[in-house]
Design a protein that fits this description.
The structure is a single chain. The protein is mainly β. It has two domains: 27-155, Immunoglobulin-like (Sandwich), CATH 2.60.40; 160-241, Immunoglobulin-like, CATH 2.60.40. The protein has helices at residues 2-25, 125-133, and strands spanning 27-39, 49-60, 66-78, 85-93, 100-109, 113-123, 138-144, 151-155, 160-167, 170-176, 183-186, 189-190, 193-195, 199-200, 204-205, 208-210, 222-228, 238-241. The strands form four sheets. The chain has an eight-stranded antiparallel sheet with strand order 5-4-7-8-1-2-3-6. The longest helix is centred in the first third of the chain and has 24 residues, at 2-25. The N and C termini lie far apart (51 Å).
Amino acid sequence: MKRLCCSLFMYAVFVAATMLILFSSAKAETVMFPVIALSSATNEESSASGFATVTLDATRDASGSISAASARIMINFYGFPENAYLLGMSVVEGSPVGPQRIFREFSVEIGSVRTLDWSGLTVTPDAATRIINNPANFYLVVSSLRNTPALSGQLGSTAKITTVIRTGKKLFILGENFAPGAEILINGEPQKTVNDEGTAPGNSPAKLIGKKAGKKIAPGQTVLIQVREPNGWLSNEFIYTRPVE
């Protein structure tokens, strides 16, 4: 009886440890895509325009593949006729009139000026992967009672951190789409940042340098690093741990 209880106990410990490893290996990721030139080309609603962002919340498994994802779309509409009615909104792959619609929402009266915010939109892992890898191949399309599409715009890219290197007091942030005036954030706190097109350690092209940010991270400390653009948009979240020297 004691052996059976011991075996059951050990099995329970094994299952709990396995679940803990699997759970802790999952990694959340949030990526924002500004919609470029969300505008209308139709005669009846040619004055209509808008500003929008598409944000993906994705979960990656231990292999780095996306296992689940959802989307949030925020749109500010301008210039629609009064009592204009929105029949559909979708993210489309390939072109604004392409057949491959990733997700959509329907039916809301928008009027001449309106801010809309949808969240919790389901996105398949495969579609989320394609959007993150190539946002320029996707379009936000808005259809009204009068026109399909009434508005359309291509997904753009925000700043993306790919590598962080610390050398002495300096922190080198390497990545893509860093606009002039972007600043480094460490755990949400802005750092004195220099835009640099020179070279970082390893002859990699340096994009941003925090001249004294490196000394603010203690040996063995783990921090969350982001880049904030002048317009307030944030890059992906990059987890960095300073090696113990």
